[in-house]
Amino acid sequence: MVGPLLKGLRITFTHLFKPAFTVKYPYEKLDVHPRWRGKHVLKVDEEGREKCCYCGLCEAVCPANAIRIYGEEAPPEKSDVGKIAAIYEIDYRRCIFCGFCEEACPRGAIVLTPYYELAEPEREKLLRTKEDLLEKR
Amino acid sequence: MVEIVIVTIVKLLIYFGIMLLFVAYGTLAERKVAGHIQDRLGPYHCGPHGILQPLADGIKLFFKEDIVASASDKFVYFLAPALAVVPPVLVLAVIPIGDSITIGGKTIPLAVADVNIALLYFLGVTSLTVYAIMLGGWAGNSKYPLLGGLRSAAQFISYELILGLSIIGVVMLVGSFNLIDIVRYQKDMWLVIKQPVAFITYMIAAIAELNRAPFDLPEAESELVGGYHTEYSSMKFALFFLGEYANMVVSSAIATALFLGGWYAPVHWLSFIPGPIWFLIKTFALFFFMLWIRWTYPRLRYDQLMGMCWRFLMPVTLLNILGTGLFVILKNGGL
Amino acid sequence: MGMVKVTIDGITVEVPENATILQAAMKAGVDIPYFCYHPYLKPAGLCRMCLVEVEGMPKLAPACVTQVRDGMVVRTNTERVKKVREGIVEFQLLHHPLDCPICDQAGECYLQDITFRYGRATSRFVDEKELYPTKFYGPLIVHEQSRCILCKRCVRFCTEVLNGADWNVYWRAAHSLIGSYESDKVANYFTCNLVEVCPVGAITSRLYRYKTRIWKLEFTRSVCEHCEMGCSLDLGVRENQLFKIKHRMADPSPWICDKGYYAFDYVNHAERILYPLARQENKMVSVEVEDAVSSIADKLKNYGEGEVAFILSPSLCLEDAAAVSSMAKAVKGLVDYRVYGEDYLPVKGNVSDIEDVESAKAVLVVGGDVAVSHPVLALSILKAKNAGAKVGVLSAHDIFLGERVDVFSLLPAGSEEPLIKELLDGNVDAIPDLSDEERSCLKDMLSGELLLVAGVRASSALRAAIYSRSKEKGWKYLFLDRGCNAKGLYSAGAYSEGVGEILNRVKEGKVKALVVAGVDLFNTYPNGSLVKEALESAEFLVVMDLFFHDTAMYSDFFLPITSFAEDGGSVVDLFWRVRRRNPAMQPKGLSRPVRDWLALIGEAMGADVDSQGQVAETGWDPLQAKAELLEVKGNTVALVEHAFYRSARYASWCSRFSEVAESPCAYISEDDAKALGVSDGDKVLVSGKGGKFEFVAKVREGQPKGSIVIDAGFDRFPVTLLLNGSWVAPVELRKA
After folding, report:
1. ipTM value for the complex
2. In chain B, which among 82-121 make CB contacts under 8 A with chain A?
3. Across the interface, which of C102, C134, C211 has its CB nearest the CB of A55?
4. CB < 8 Å from A in window 100-159 of C
5. DSSP letter at C651?
6. pLDDT tens digits for range B294-318
7. A20 contacts B39? CB cut-off 8 A
8. What's the confidence (pLDDT) of residue B335?
């Protein structure tokens, strides 16, 4: 009866001096898989033109209704097809990071990046607009 | 007379300070030990290695909203947390952390009060703790605290007996209830060697009295939410917490005095280290032992708890008293 | 007509013997895909999508042009038909760019749907697609030539319905392109129908272009507000913004006009006033609804009998009109809706619906440009003509219908009415500028069955003449009114002596408080100076409208009202039918319907405002009118008419209409042009009673000497200052 009790104490005592598995998160970060589905980015092409042409498929496929887009005509220096999204909003309060938008996009314009640090002190800030989402070059 | 008052007040402040520090860092130690036993780190954010965590917790608890359960019995509801802190602080008075020292021709014992019935006092006062828990459990007017309080009362009464019976052996050997005498008796040999069974039963009973795992049924989270302090928040909750840790410190300190030779060094050549430091080291060792136990063993069932008390510990302590009595008679040359 | 039995895919249906297989299949519920077929255009058999197998015929037959025979057995579900359909879709997609993500038609595209349902998954075409540039035809439509599948629906619309427009197929075979030969604009008022008939994304609306996707819009049934025709519309709303209007069904007409299709985006305009305003120290400041209502009620309470007047837009709905009438009764005030200064009230025609117009034997249009005031009616008249009717247009101004009909004469502006009166009396020779052929045709028309259409400019005296003459001769008659709900306002009793009379009384101080709802009087009333004086001398002026227009500048209180898209209500259309609108969106800001405002004000005053409108059984009897025929004499007489794109409600706030960058024109005769030394496109100066205005001269063939027509309705261009209560006035014409 006493044997197992002592064995238990031994096990916990040895673990006391084993290195911890904890990752001290804000100070050190783990590498995520390159295909991790984190924050979205709206791609631009080599000439700095927006790839998104507002076909509305991401908006339509989004199961969480997190995407809201309006389009507009655009000059050739902003889009190779003459149409861009005037408003592109992703509501991270709703987004479930399923990646359907990326899958639906016919032009590879919206891509989910491994960037995952999306927490905000205010809920409203989770509504990301086109300026936040557009790829910076 | 004035000198006595001043000395007493100074001692009180020092004792109280040491205890509060002990309690504060006890909570940190608990979390750190728990963390490391589970291969985690424990608190890490406040100060280096989380050293300021107790401070942060204190500030947080101070500023939390003080929720008062609307259907509660207000007077008892406010009384209970206060009662939780009182017994350990009172017991503090009789704990000798060192041998008497002589300042200016006056001999000052290193206990606030050098009482010759210290052990009886200890037993009497600690048994008051159950009131805090019972009243706390009842005042909230809520089912989980009530169940917690009930369990606590039964558990407390049972194990109070074991605690008392464990100590009898020591008292019989030393022939005194005075803790200072008991420590002095152990100058050459610790009582843990003479009374190993009593030490073990004392520790078990102490842990059970403290409502700590594996005997933490009154606050069993998986069944009773928070047990008797479910309805408490903010500083009232903090007082319960403070009481629990203070009780742990006090129990460890009493055990040190009873079994581990108090302020004496384990071997003579280490005597250059002052007695109080030895006392604190030993107390902390026992404190750590309680933490270690908690994070090793799973919680007992209620029937197991009671069965262990009455069917196992009770006979064992009684046998221990019998054995000790025989030893004392034989040593004194028979009847 | 005999009925025949046809079996399609095992389903036997009975159809008229002149039906096509496609129509029979529709009746049987069998789906046959098509591109070029349109129920209101003649079948063309161009796209070959509807090929079906007919028992006994060696080759597949195009269902849209093959007439049924008794006992015919048709199969649409055989392997052969399936393979052919796959082939046709593959051919259609050879050069069709697969840019559905960009295309505005995606979601309502025939080609998309048919490809999904009948097409192959892949194309075997490996060469480069032939692509053509995108062409913008004015600010209203855009033609993406690559996407065209050459179904010729648009061309057929232009030739069959418009009786010819500059829109056709150019080049040959695989290089065929549809477009306009001469200009970069499609110069007619029905361009939106090209968008509506186009089955693919080749012709799309520039107003809706790329703004949102069709599947994001929620469509609500409504009725057009720009004229009495009451075309059925679907309003497409997303997030409380009106984005698109679609023509819902062929009631009254399968076609609609540019006003109905494009003039709606003022609803979303940023300049819309959404909060009540009050004048404080000569500034308009926004006030609480309760404050505005209680102060207006307090003010109105102080006025006695005949001291309050209400002027309404003829486009307000029946319920609003009823509320205003009952309010006017409560305060013993005057009320009128005839803001265009006309002196007539709605007369119930003896034409019960548009099919009566389309099946008329002869149609004579007098006293107004039907294509501007009731554009869709012009198309119905053309349909009647194409069915063999003789059609005549006698008017001082006409720019669409005249050149497409049998008898057409531009009458001198000042003497339009006496000439028509004389014609009705039987003197065909009174009409100038007619060829012998036209004259005999006109004689025939007058002696036989005739439908007389009195345009919006025909005064009550002319209406009386038409009415009595028609009764006498057994003719049919149709009297047009301005605004979309004149008949409803008449039914609600929202009329008295005329807006001119009210304005005069305001000017004289007899009427002290004036409420103007839904109209900018400077734009509509043909006497700008009277409007100005009246508004200046009004003691208390409340304006209810969407925008802070010129009339609102004089107001003491401005209350925001809802547009037709937000306000459910009823209108009474040309054929005296009640048409219901559904609210398609939430009222913007604090705007609310006129009736709601009046109910609030009435409550604060202790008066009961009732908004239950009843439609009048009978129309007004024009024979009661004691007015004289309108006749204006002078060296040069000008007729002021709103240009088509300026005649829509709130045209100034319709983004595309303000881009139809026509500057105001003056149509002048060749003789006058020669005398002044101006040619087409030169600037001329027209001066009259209230000022001088510069116009672009348009020299028009057939325009009588000494008579000009000038455009009204442009922003900051108050030509109504030239007028004196009627739309015709003597002016002086000079070269600028």
Report:
1. 0.86
2. none
3. C102
4. 100-102, 106, 134
5. G
6. 888 888 888 888 888 899 999 999 9
7. yes
8. 63
Predicted confidence band of residue B334 (pLDDT cuts 50, 70, 90): low
Interface list for C 215-244 with A (CB within 8 A): 215-216
A51 lies in some domain: yes
Contact B317, B198 (CB under 8 A): yes
Residues C22 and C28: their CA atoms lie apart, in Å, by 10
pLDDT of residue B69: 79
CB-nearest partner of C102 from A53, A59, A70:
A53
In terms of domains, do C523 and C598 share one? yes
pLDDT > 80? residue B227: no
The answer, yes or no, to whether C and A have at least 3 beta-carbon pairs within 8 Å is: yes
Instruction: Work out how many CB contacts closer than 8 A connect A with B.
Output: 37
Residue B124: CB atoms within 10 Å: 13
CA distance B322 to B328: 10
Selected residue of C98, C210, C238 to mutate for chain A interface (largest A Cβ count, 10 A): C210
8 Å CB contact of A56 and C102: no
Range of the structural domain that residue C67 is part of = 3-92
Question: Residue C589, Cβ neighbours under 10 Å: how many?
Answer: 13
C597-645 confidence digits (pLDDT tens): 999 999 999 888 888 888 888 889 988 887 888 888 888 999 999 989 8
Q: Note the pLDDT of residue B17.
A: 87
Q: Across the strands, what pairs with C220?
A: C235
Q: Quickly tell me which residue has 């928040």 as its tokens.
A: B233
* The pLDDT of residue C187: 66
Is 80 exceeded by the pLDDT of residue B105? no
Number of helices and strands (H, E) in chain C? 21, 33
Number of independent structural domains in chain C: 4
Mean pLDDT of C8-36: 94
A95 domain-assigned:
yes
CATH number of the domain at C382, please: 3.40.228.10
C213 contacts A55? CB cut-off 8 A = yes
Does B82 have pLDDT greater than 70?
Answer: yes
Structural domain tally of chain A? Answer: 1
Q: CB distance A20–B36 less than 8 Å?
A: yes
What are the pLDDT digits (tens) for C377-390? Answer: 999 999 999 999 99
- Over residues C650-661, the mean pLDDT reads 84
- Note whether C595 and C530 are same-domain residues: yes
- Cis before A114 (ω within 30): no
Domain annotation covers residue A80: yes
Mean pLDDT of B134-153: 85
Return the number of CB contacts < 8 Å for A and C. Answer: 37
Residue A104 covered by a domain = yes
Q: What distance in Å separates the CA atoms of residue C64 and residue C52, rounded to the nearest whole number?
A: 10
Domain CATH number, residue A26: 3.30.70.3270
Assess whether C310 and C407 both reside in one domain. no
Q: Which chain B positions have a beta carbon within 8 Å of A13's beta carbon?
A: 292
B295–A contact, CB cutoff 8 A: yes
Average pLDDT over residues C438-456: 92
Instruction: Locate the domains of chain B by residue range.
Output: 2-331
SS3 at position C427: coil
Question: Whole-angstrom Cα distance, residue B261 to residue B270?
Answer: 14
Rounded distance between C-alpha atoms, residue C178 and residue B128, angstroms: 100
Interatomic CA distance for residues B254 and B210, integer angstroms: 14
Identify the weakest region by mean pLDDT among C266-270, C459-463, C505-509, C713-717: C713-717
Q: Half-sphere exposure of C358 toward its Cβ, with a 13 Å CA cutoff?
A: 12
pLDDT value of position B150: 86
**Based on the domain organization, do C647 and C699 belong to the same domain?**
yes
Chain C residues with CB under 8 Å of A83 CB are 102, 210
In a domain, C239, yes or no: no
Q: Does A9 contact B296 at a Cβ distance shorter than 8 Å? A: yes
Contact check, Cβ <8 Å, A83/C211? no
Contact flag B33-A16 (C-beta cutoff 8 Å): yes
